[in-house]
Amino acid sequence: MDFKQLRYFVAVYEEGHVGRAAERLSISQPALSQQIRHLEQNLDVSLFERSSKRLLPTLAAHTLYNHALPLLDGLQRAREALGNFKGQALRTLAIGVLQTVHTSLVPQMLERVRKAQPHLVVQIYELTGLEIERRLLNGALDIGISYLPPRQPGLHGVMLYEDELTLVIPADHPLREFKKVSMSQAAELPMLLLGEEFQVRQIWQTQLANLGRRPQVQAELNNMAGILDSLPHTRLATVLPGRSQKALGNHELLWKPLTEPRVPLKVGLVCRDVQRQQASLALLRTLLEEVMNAPDERSATLDGLS
């Protein structure tokens, strides 16, 4: 048994599926299956009960998983500590970002990270809020950029900025002359929305439920840019964070503040281990604040949101 086999085992255990685990590890499915079989042979135990749909961990697998996590964590810490002795050592930082904040923050943040830490390799994953939290908990991500507060116990958040949910309609929509739209009015509108796995959709549904209402869903897309491209050709509306207008604004669309009540959104950095990620959190927070306050033309879309 070696650390590579342990890492492979942890991925299969957490995913419950060889195909998904292989994708996560960037190796072929047959190679992963072979490694798991070798591990079972070396340990002389059965780790998974195989069914047609997923792998079910045995009691031995549960025991091994509980021992494997601290071992792998210790190995990573050792590598990071030894990296300090190499002045030019490469280090990787895996960040999960919500689709609804990705467009406005990440492109300009990446260039600043490159200048501040030229030997840091940044891996960006565009994910739903639920997937960001799941990957933070299982160690697949270091930091998330998501809505606060985190929903899963064991995660911690650091505030970045506030936003609010906004109604988006085509320029010829019946509500085009309204300066703002109440939640009750918006509840009546047929909608083109992000899927239910997206946190913005969940927040919208919760707000309507508080009014005893349900969203009038006519269509769904899993891509925010696709929704904004589609709206001008429909009489549908959608709800998105207000700052998306500055990053993805379209003259064919109108953005109307929602009121009665407002729906505030808090965006921040999320992690599992604040102490371990303290340096990375401080770096990202500083660089993201620079992006949001940058006076130049490229960063004008982020002004005033510190």
Automatic annotation (TrEMBL):
It comes from the Bacteria. The keyword Transcription applies. Pfam families: HTH_1 (PF00126), LysR_substrate (PF03466). GO terms for molecular function: DNA binding; DNA-binding transcription factor activity. CDD domains: PBP2_LTTR_substrate. PROSITE patterns: HTH_LYSR. Residues 1-58 form the HTH lysR-type domain. Belongs to the LysR transcriptional regulatory family. This is DNA-binding transcriptional regulator, LysR family. It comes from Pseudomonas migulae.
